[in-house]
Amino acid sequence: MDQEVLRTRMERIRLQEGCIELMKELRLSQENQGTVGTSDCKVQLWDVDYEKHLRSRSSHTARVGSLSWNDHPLSGSRSGHIYHHDVRVSEHHISTLSGHSMEALAWCPWQPNILAYGGVTMDRHIRISGSCISSFDTRSQISSLLFAPNHKELVSAHGYDHNNVVIWKYPSFTKVAEHNDHKDRVLSLTLSPDFSSVATVAGDDIRLWKCFEVNPVEKKAKERMVKSTSSVIHQSIR
């Protein structure tokens, strides 16, 4: 299924359910299943093709603020727990990672055993869990994370007290670039299908940032496409 179609369908699901968080990476299962986290502590499983709600789990004890897929989904909440779900079974919560209150989750696409997760205002750390565990203090609340596979970099969105977006070289956490134009908390990030741009959603507006070089083959194909008009603000982060 086309990525834009997936995004549109997931957005319609989000709007009709009033959910606070969508799956950050549109890497669905072969059956095109998606998960949605809600403010009433539930993780919902959806059939994206038919926009049909399949089932819900309410094992979290706080708002589900982050989701990420790696064959099966992970969900994180402000209670400090990350739940691993096996969507092939009805009771799909199968294991728990605890100890840190988090707002963001992201699987590494080129190292599928590596998970990055980010802390809330009092924590402020990006933590890497997998073959080894490491952490880095960003000195700001972390609201969203994503990996950029073409450059092997990690992008983080922040709330109090910086309200910015930062690109980090992974795994050194050397700061590559920073965007400070949002006035309010940056709520979410998403990567464009060609991996070149990052869209940011904040309390004040939506912005689209040119962050990475496009693959030459994909760039030529993109240049042949008719450019569409948009009200989204386009800027460069580098």
TrEMBL record:
Q: Which InterPro entries match?
A: Cdc20/Fizzy, WD40/YVTN_repeat-like_dom_sf, WD40_repeat_dom_sf, WD40_rpt
SMART domains cross-referenced by the UniProt entry: WD40
Superkingdom of the source? Answer: Eukaryota
GO CC, alphabetical: anaphase-promoting complex
Segments spanning the bilayer are none
Is the keyword Cytoplasm in the record?
A: no
Protein keywords:
Repeat, WD repeat
A GO BP term, please?
positive regulation of anaphase-promoting complex-dependent catabolic process
Q: Which Gene3D superfamilies match?
A: YVTN repeat-like/Quinoprotein amine dehydrogenase
Q: Where would one find coiled-coil regions in this protein? A: none
Q: Does the keyword Membrane apply?
A: no
Molecular-function annotations in GO: anaphase-promoting complex binding; ubiquitin ligase activator activity
From the Swiss-Prot or TrEMBL record, give the protein name: Cell division cycle 20 homolog
Lineage per the UniProt record: Eukaryota, Metazoa, Chordata, Craniata, Vertebrata
